[in-house]
Amino acid sequence: MAATTACLVAGVAWGVLHALGVAVPKLSVLLLVPVSFGCTAAVTVVAARAPGLADTGRRFWRHLTLCVVLVAAGSSLMSPARLTPEAPRALTLIQLSAPLLVLGILVLFYALLRLPVRARSPGEWLRLGLDGMIVLFTTALFLWHLALRPLVQRHLDLKVVLVLCIVTVTCLVTLVAVMKVVMLGSGPVSGRSMGVLASTMLLGALGAVLTPLIDEPRWVGVQPVLTFTASLLVATAAHVQYVTAVNPAAERSRTRPDRPYSKLPYFAGGATLLLLATVAYGVDHGDIAAVATGAVAVSGVVGVRQLVALRDNAQLLESVRRHEQRLRHQATHDALTGLVNRARFTDLLADALDHGRGGVAVLLIDLDDFKLINDTHGHAVGDEVLITVARRLGDAVRAGDVVARLGGDEFAAVLYDATDEHGVAVARRIRDGLSAAVTAGGHELLVRASVGIAASAAGDELDTLLRNADLAMYGAKERGKGDYFAYVPGMTTRIVAHAELGAQLREAIDAGQLFIEYQPIVRLCDGHIVGTEALVRWRHPERGIVPPAEFIPAAEQTGLVVPLGRWVLREACAQQSRWRQTLGAAAPGSVGVNVAGRQLTEPDFVATVGAALADTGLDPRHLIIEVTETAVVDAAATAALQALRDMRIRIALDDFGTAASSLGLLLTCPVTALKLDRTFVDRITTVNRQEAVAMAVVRMAQALELDAVAEGIETEEQAVLLRNLGYRFGQGYLYGRPLAPDDLATRVAPALSSVGRRTG
Fold first, then answer.
1. Residues in Cβ contact with 617 at an 8 Å cutoff, skipping those fewer than 6 apart
2. Is the pLDDT of residue 297 over 70?
3. CA distance 459 to 360
4. 122-143 and 264-280 helices cross at what angle (nearest 10)?
């Protein structure tokens, strides 16, 4: 760098002295040309070997080194001819230097084309090509008028003019290539280096423009100044590349947008018209035809470029419009299901209430046990289920009504010009539409929804209507999963009381307000107690005994059923263990503990049961886990029951016959006993169909080698009939109500068998 700078300083000094008429030897400046380019070549070699530079970058700088060597050779031959044009061998030197200069520039052109650039669309390449043509045509026109034409007019040797034309055109083409790289990004090559190289090519074009001036004997010193400046610029570019490769943080992104070049057509067109006006209104009109032809060519390319710009602007505006529409849709619709979202749903409902569009009914829809689907099969399957449910909900409403997804597994619908009756009809269609299994991820899944219905009344506000629908959905869940319920006045008080009961239940678990009673399970043939069923009770400090039908649903809805069930399990195991120790062989053979579906899905449920057995010392064979058919809804619950069965714990299917999946569960659930639901017992002596169902259940149990237990036996006639049908075990008020542990212990006596003998 220092040597190249010194050569430039020496060249400037020589040119100034020569212009002032001081006799200075030309040989001194001629010798500096190869020295300057030699130093520049050394700098480019160092840049090509810079640490951290990509292979494509190294290849570029190696090519540039070759370019510098060729240009150095050509300039070393061209400089004597330009400084001493009267020498007899000047023309020969020019003819020899031209191929070297052109070849060097072509090597640079090739290196530029091989640089990787980011992907561009055909339209972007078209714009770039038109911009290049504008630069090429405009620069060529000015070069012709300012440089080449004066040389021709001076009757310079035609070969010299031809050589200068070839070198100039090559510089222009390479300038376009440099512009392409600067505009599109130079990949592994420093963007600042490419900017400096672009300045070098502009300097070459400037040298051509200054050719008429340089040929004047007084100003021939300008030629070495231009040569040394070009050499210094290339060395500077190589130095910048080396610094950038060593310290990448110094490089800033050089990918420029198209916006800075959007004014190029205006500058080119204005400059061309200015040149045309200068020639037209000047003294010398000899070049008017050539300038006019060039102006027409430039104007034509500029016009095409502007048409392309107008087309691009139109496409951009259309893209912006579509993007705005997409953003508006995303702001008001759910991305997964395509339904309107909560915000849009609220706006539509508020608008309907404000403008009095007849009666408005709102349906709030909550998918039951959807979390189990997500936890068991994954969120991808859950998303497929939501999409299918959304489609079925849309099929259940009229064309003008609106279905929305509020979030998660919560949906809603706005029914215009509707009443409670219409809302109930839609809820019924929703229930029927969801009755068919949903296919998702290769699984056939049963999806149910609880639907709350609320119709607007005169003067109802948005919050009031939504609260009523929410209360109605709460009522639907109280009635059981997959049901619907319409809001009725007065629900608020009952729902609030129910919620307060759930809050008090949490305190009751810790305050010792809960206790367990045990209902006997007997052999029907002799009335001997063979087991018990643990039933939790709540002694409220103010209300007294709270019925299980009130607080068990509250526990399930609040999630308290998990700690409540854990407490019942441990207490029942401890009591059964105490009976085994105090009563010996007279103790009940087993204790049954009811387990909710929520408990089965807890990851540590099996470990909890094992810990309860270990801590109380109870043999697993004396524990029966009772589950309802609706609790065993997926593979996770079945797996938990199988793990318990592997521990030799017995499994009883409680309330058998009340769900649609009963028969299928017998193939997948590891049950050891069936407990016939009391609804098939209460009128078994008077309704033949109930007797037929009871008979079918006991025959099936016998075929599968399962115990059959009849629940809800209240009369001797029922007991006799069930025993004759083949039932070995039963429970009900005939054999005793649920009892405290001490009361049950006194009942474990042979006297109870007399009841069995009387029923015979």
1. 577
2. yes
3. 12
4. 20
Mean pLDDT (whole number) for 709-716: 94
CA atoms within 13 A on the CB side of 560: 18
Do residues 215 and 189 touch, judged by C-beta distance below 8 A?
no
Phi, psi of 713, deg, nearest 5: -75, 120
Radius of gyration, CA atoms only, the chain: 48
Residues whose CB is less than 8 angstroms from the CB of residue 159 and which lie 6 or more positions away in sequence, other chains included: 91, 94, 95
Residues in the chain: 760
CATH architecture of the domain with residue range 509-738: Alpha-Beta Barrel (3.20)
**In this model, does residue 32 exceed pLDDT 50?**
yes
Question: Between these two residues, 192 and 61, which has the higher pLDDT value?
Answer: 61
Question: CB neighbours of 230 closer than 8 A, spacing ≥ 6?
Answer: 200, 203, 204
CA atoms of 214 and 140, how far apart (whole Å): 19
Most confident of 444-448, 453-457, 479-483: 453-457
Q: Which of 387, 420, 418 is nearest to 405 (CA)?
A: 387
If pLDDT is split at 50, 70 and 90, which confidence band does 234 have?
Answer: confident
Candidates 582, 573, 584; CA nearest to 618 is: 573
Q: For the chain, which residues make up each domain, given as ranges?
A: 2-251, 262-328, 342-489, 509-738
Closest CA to 523 of 712, 723, 700: 723
Residue entry with tokens 């399990």: 569
Whole-number pLDDT of residue 752: 40
Among 386, 368, 372, which residue's Cα sits nearest to residue 477?
368
User: Considering the domain 342-489 in this protein, what is its CATH number?
Assistant: 3.30.70.270
Pairing of strands 514-523, 529-540: antiparallel
**In this structure, are residues 713 and 695 in contact, taking their beta carbons and an 8 Å threshold?**
no
Residue linked to tokens 């006019």: 292
Phi and psi dihedrals of 269, rounded to 5? Answer: -65, -45
Q: What is the pLDDT of residue 259?
A: 46
